[in-house]
Amino acid sequence: MGTQTAIFIILGIYIAVMVGIALYTSKRTKSVNDFMLGGRNVGPWLTAFSYGTTYFSAVVFIGYAGQFGWDYGVAAAWIGVGNAIIGSLIPWFVLGKRTRLMSNQLGARTMPEFFEQRFGSSLLKNISAAIVFIFLIPYTASVYNGLARLFGMAFDLGENGYVYIIIAMALLSAVYVIIGGYTATAFNDFFQGIIMLIGISAVVICTVNNKGGLTSALQQLGEFEVGGAGGLNSLFGPDPINLFGVVILTSLGTWGLPQMVQKFYAIKSEKSIFTGSIVSTFFALVVAGGSYFMGGFVRLYNDSSVAKDERVPALLDAALPDILIGLVVVLVLSASLSTLSSLVLTSSTTLTNDLIKPHFKNMHDKREMLIMRVLIAFFLILSVVIAANKNASITTLMSYSWGALSGSFLGPFMWGLFSKKTSKAACIASFITGVGISMVHMVLFSLGLFPNLVESVKALGCPLNLLSPINAGAIAMIISIIIVPVVSLFTKAPEQKVVDEAFSCLEKNI
Q1: Could you read off the pLDDT of 423-433 as tens digits, one per residue?
Q2: Band (20; pLDDT cuts 50, 70, 90)
Q3: Which of 62, 193, 390, 418 sits in a 20 to 30 Å window from 104, CA-based?
Q4: Which one is predicted more confidently, 102 or 350?
């Protein structure tokens, strides 16, 4: 049996299981609350796996691991450690319980609805809902981009194969989200997460063993001459300052991303937080740590002529035996579809619940779920159109998306959970700076409109790469955390009745 035949058989089994889960869970999806949040009754293991599989996709495994493994060597593994500690463990303990309690108290099912109820402002809901819908699209496109490049390595699909794969993945992700909603994604995420844990472990072992073992691989990596503080086989790599920027963007970003925070809305109880945090952290250490560690060896399998988004596929093609290629295809497919399902569900439910429903009186559940399902298809079509552009960099698309979303929401959401003095004006200030920094940076430095300005910035020789959309996103997040309490000092807090309503659940339970 040929390699491609084996891959097709594995894919067939995988797709059949996913669709079967969707059909099974569809029986549990009887209301809008079931479709959006699984009835707020999802256990800690399912929630933890859903958190992790939403966090990590083809963007990390194909795009980020290839680019930053090339730039920083094995020190790129620190990104995975940051993802586990800052992006998984700490937010579960800091945000998890309060988010679950307050969102339930306010009846909030989306982040924009949380802002509306917490601050007594429909304006905040409308602005944040528009930001969610607009900036989740490039992130979704980046996931498709990574998937298509991997399939291009595994199969000979011809000139238009790239587009066909993107369309096929869009259809597959649409099927099980539309049928089963949040519960289907949670069960599928658990199944996909198991595949990711096994697959990443196998890939790391093969990557190192193919170069004579860990000691030999590290020695070969150290032979590359790179400028900066250390070599590619050193603890902190040649450029620790910009490496730290990547850690901040990819770790702190989860605190303000609606598709991540929503996991805390749906978890079964506050008692589930501890178990979920441990499982989620372990998952991140294996998946993210393994991906970036594997990426640290891409220079041993590529030369400088290979495009950054093609580096990991080239490594896999060279390092893995044929039988494991099928496992890796399913691994990245699992990682990506789990992320896609959360993105499209978050986007469609936000748009329906927060922007469309308020304009209709007494919209019943069946009509609301129908609109959500139609918007899932619309959202996927937009993402496919963007992803069909092969020149769109995976890391650039994701960086601007995360920078705008978390740069807008991180400060308002976090301070809104902890401080009664947080004001509506402070939220708007954060929305403006988060979106503004990302959009201005993209126009000035990423669209090729101002080549002279780009050259001038390069000539400055600043240790922090100001041209990087990753650093721009990290800066936006830090500013969001700072600007909210500062602006709140000089502006009016919401009405006392609104604040008391939001915090009453915390005063009873904490």
Answers
A1: 999 999 999 99
A2: confident
A3: 193
A4: 102
CA angle centred on 405, ends 98 and 494, rounded to 5°: 50
- For residue 182, what is the enclosing H or E element? helix 161-209
Judging by beta carbons within 10 Å of its beta carbon (0-12, 13-18, 19+), is residue 107 exposed, middle or buried?
A: exposed
Retrieve residue 219's tokens: 């020695």
The total of other beta-carbon atoms located within 10 Å of residue 200's CB is: 23
Amino acid identity, position 441:
H
Cα Rg, the chain, nearest whole Å? 22
What are the distances in angstroms from CA 69 to CA 63, 132, 285, 298, 373? 10, 30, 16, 6, 39
212: burial class by Cβ within 10 Å (0-12, 13-18, 19+)? exposed
Does residue 74 contact residue 207 with C-beta atoms inside 8 Å? no
Residue 64 tokens, joined:
């980020």
Domains of the chain listed by start with CATH number: 3-394 (1.20.1730.10)
Cα 22 to Cα 25, 309, 343: the distances in Å are 5, 32, 17
User: Could you tell me if 296 and 75 are in contact, meaning their C-beta atoms sit under 8 angstroms apart?
Assistant: yes
